[in-house]
Design brief:
This protein has 18 helices and 18 strands. It is α/β, with parallel strands linked by helices. The protein folds into 3 domains: about 220 residues, NAD(P)-binding Rossmann-like Domain (Rossmann fold, 3-Layer(aba) Sandwich), CATH 3.40.50; about 180 residues, Arc Repressor Mutant, subunit A (Orthogonal Bundle); about 100 residues, Roll (Structural Genomics Hypothetical 15.5 Kd Protein In mrcA-pckA Intergenic Region, Chain A). β2, α4 and β3 form a beta-alpha-beta unit. The structure holds adenosine-5'-triphosphate and zinc ion. Zinc ion binds next to loops. Keywords: ATP-binding, Metal-binding, Nucleotide-binding, Ubl conjugation pathway, Zinc.
């Protein structure tokens, strides 16, 4: 009996043949991706391309079953291909060890697929694939999981909601002053250790850390200035790396001198307990007999003395790595050596865990185990293989509906996996909702520009296409994800080449009509690279574009029931339902709330996580 006989029987010959001929793209070969690839290959999808930028880590092996111990440090995409090929040698698998945002994966490339599957773990890459599929007019099946929660959504341009139709919760950040001056929860000390202390000693600068919110800096200008001086002093300590005095200097600076300064701000401690500085020599005396192997006890909360031992030991390890790096990069001043925090890098995790707990002790905050700190610093909740397997199965069932002849879009559903205590089953589903007419990504006009990047300038787009071909008047702006590059008061970029403005074939440009009367909806431009004859324009508009008027002012979302309904008939999903990946991060003690974003409630109160 042929290996595909039963599959053919259960799917029916016509669907089976279409699956056999289908060319699909799977973005992400992690927890969901491994399960999904197995399903695609065993069902007989004719050609599957895999894109993943990462290499295999020890911590992936418990659930990413296409990978084995001997694959650690190898490309996920390539090993996934190798392992899954053995399940069904009749299908073709193509692996790309790359970032899906790389320019080689342009709109034309997306057009070469019948279907696209997202098996990703982050908002940024998902949004990018969403935009690419809209520009290429390809159906995207997005699968996501967070712990026990999961979702599968079918996104078809103009028919169903896209990934951006519901605004997503911005990642949680903390005001700088909370982190640096008045921490009150373990997470504040963990962010301090990871995004301030570690980066100032071994990395670049805290200013770039996404967890730190600088929006209130102006209001606290004098305190921020003092904090800045503290950071500079800490950076100087970097010069002591490798010297006998290094560890004590770091310790004295951040756990003694800086704390003394904070204590002197009496107003800050009127309603809370003032921090207590630590003494290096006293702790040295108290820690004789504690072995550095205590760092391996990752489930228990270390004592102050144990944290001190791990702090010193991890600083030794990191200092040595930093020195080695410096030696190997000697003479190459353009790349100063830096170390970066990685939750799977024991040396960096030990340092962050020990430093966070020392700071927690100073501020009378509960300490956390290294295991808990790994979850919180890595902003992760445990991934659950079963959830991944369920969504990877459901997403293929949705793909069947789309591949039928004729396609059964009306039967396609958004499916959610929940473990809410009052929910009757494991999954819930709803029909696909129509696009949000105010969505900045899909309720817009789209156009493609054929572009010769060797000579195209911004002027060729602004003057040659937008004004000459699409009748934009003077009042409009053009922006990339990085910001505005053209508007009536910003004309300096017109003579610049697109490459100088970091615009490539993977870039989307947004044209916003700023006219007072009847402005048109936003226009999203994507690029097709082509070498064009010198006597022709460097940017061409191959097809006519219709740009409708912008809809009237957006109604205020109703906050009464936590929904943000816009279409009168059906309630739109709220952030928790629609974006489980980002709304639903939980710790072991996490508790899901039924509406609104998800909170972690730990002993120190509730905090929102992205
Ligand atoms: N921009 C991107 N381009 C290509 N692949 C990506 C991109 N962003 C994320 N990925 C991949 O998506 C996959 C998501 O899988 P998963 O959620 O299981 O994460 P993981 O990194 O394997 O696990 P964990 O984060 O729990 O350690 C990862 O393999 C990751 O490398
Ligand atoms: Zn949309």
């Amino acid at each position: 009996m042929g290996r595909d006989k039963l599959t053919r029987q259960s799917l029916g010959g016509s669907l089976y043949n279409r699956i056999n001929e289908a060319k699909v793209l799977m973005v992400g070969a992690g927890g969901i991706g491994c399960e999904l690839l197995k399903n695609l290959v065993l069902t007989g999808f004719g050609e599957t391309h895999i894109v993943d930028l990462d290499t295999i880590d020890l911590s992936n092996l418990n659930r990413q079953f296409l990978f084995r111990h001997e694959h650690i440090k190898k490309s996920k995409a390539l090993v996934a291909k190798e392992s899954a090929s053995r399940f069904n040698p009749a299908v073709k698998i193509v692996a790309h060890h790359a970032n899906i945002k790389d320019p080689q994966f342009d709109v034309e490339w997306f057009k070469s697929f019948d279907l696209v599957f997202n098996a990703l773990d982050n908002l940024e890459a998902r949004r990018h694939v969403n935009r690419m599929c809209l520009a290429a007019d390809r159906i995207l099946l997005d699968a996501g999981t967070t712990g026990w929660q999961g979702s599968v959504t079918v996104i078809k341009k103009g028919v169903s909601q896209c990934y951006d139709c519901n605004p997503k919760e911005a990642p949680k950040s903390f005001p700088v002053c909370t982190i640096r001056t008045t921490p009150s929860q373990p997470i504040h000390c963990i962010i301090w250790a990871k995004s301030y202390l570690f980066t100032e000693i071994f990395g670049t600068s805290e200013d770039d850390a996404p967890e730190l919110d600088h929006s209130e800096d102006q209001e606290n200008a004098s305190e921020i200035e003092k904090l800045r001086k503290e950071s500079q002093a800490l950076k100087k300590i970097r010069e002591l790396i490798g010297k006998e005095t290094f560890k004590k200097s770091v310790f004295d600076k951040v756990f003694h001198e800086d704390i003394d300064r904070l204590r002197s701000m009496e107003d800050a401690w009127k309603t809370r307990k003032a921090p207590e500085p630590l003494q290096y020599d006293k702790l040295v005396a108290e820690t004789t007999g504690i072995a550095s192997s205590v760092a391996q006890s990752d489930q228990k909360e270390w004592t102050l003395q144990e944290s001190f031992v791990v702090f010193n030991d991890s600083l030794d390890r990191l200092g040595k790595r930093f020195q080695d790096l410096k030696e190997t990069s000697n003479g190459n001043s353009s790349t100063p050596p830096i170390l970066t925090f990685d939750k799977d890098d024991e040396d960096t995790l030990d340092f962050v865990a020990a430093s966070a707990n020392l700071r927690s002790h100073i501020f009378s905050i509960d300490s956390k185990s290294k295991f808990d700190i790994k979850q919180m610093a890595g902003n992760i909740i445990p991934a659950i293989a079963t959830t991944n397997a369920i969504v990877a199965g459901i997403v293929v069932l949705e793909a069947f509906k789309i591949l039928r002849d004729p396609p059964e879009f009306d039967k396609a559903r958004s499916v959610f996996l929940t473990r809410l205590s009052n929910s009757p089953g494991v999954t819930a589903s709803e029909s696909l909702l129509p696009p949000n007419p105010y969505c900045p990504t899909c309720s817009v006009a789209q156009a493609q520009l054929v572009t010769d990047f060797t000579r195209a300038k911004l002027k060729d787009i602004v003057e040659g296409v937008l004004k000459a071909k699409l009748n934009y008047s003077e009042d409009f702006s053009v922006s990339t994800e990085a910001g505005v590059i053209f508007e009536p008061d910003l004309e300096d970029n017109l003579e610049k080449k697109l490459s100088e403005l970091s615009i490539g074939k993977e870039t989307f440009l947004t044209v916003r009509d700023e006219a007072d009367d009847c402005p048109r909806t936003n226009l999203i431009l994507s690029m097709i690279e082509k070498s064009l004859p010198a006597d022709e324009g460097a940017v061409q508009l191959p097809e006519a574009v219709v740009i409708p008027q912008r809809p009237q002012a957006k109604p205020e979302p109703s906050m009464s029931n936590g929904s943000n309904a816009t279409n009168g008939t059906k309630r739109k999903r709220d952030a928790t339902e629609a974006d489980l990946e980002d709304a639903g991060k939980m710790s072991k003690k996490g508790k899901v709330q039924e509406s609104g974003p998800i909170t972690i409630e730990d002993d120190d109160g509730a905090i929102l996580l992205d």
